[in-house]
Design goal:
The chain contains four helices and three strands. By secondary structure, it is an alpha+beta fold.
Length: 103
């Protein structure tokens, strides 16, 4: 009962759609598919408006790339692409750009 009340209060603040697997209002979900750790690059990226769709696609891709440890599949959530660059820059920036950020 307490959990349900807390979840409803959260839904009031960030958007009712979270009850159905949608991202909080104003957020976007980017699905980064096929990040090659060895090459340090993202091979494909697709934007999803509904978090549940991004997660389903992530699970499909994980099956597709099973047995290839150099390929990482991720689903990322942020308010903007700029925020993704700050929090998850390694998926979008090259090694030189990442090195410049920490220098």
């Amino acid at each position: 009962h307490e959990w349900a009340e807390l979840f409803e209060k959260l839904a009031d603040r960030v958007g009712r759609g979270i009850r159905y697997g949608e991202p909080p209002a104003g957020w976007r979900v980017d699905w980064a598919r096929g990040y090659d750790r060895d090459a340090g690059m993202l091979s494909r990226r697709r934007r999803y408006e509904i978090g549940a769709d991004a997660m389903r696609a992530r699970f499909v891709a994980e099956g597709e790339f099973a047995g290839r440890p150099e390929i990482e599949i991720v689903a990322l959530v942020a308010e903007s692409e700029d925020d993704l660059l700050v929090t998850h820059g390694r998926y979008f920036l090259g090694l030189t750009e990442l090195a410049e950020r920490i220098a």
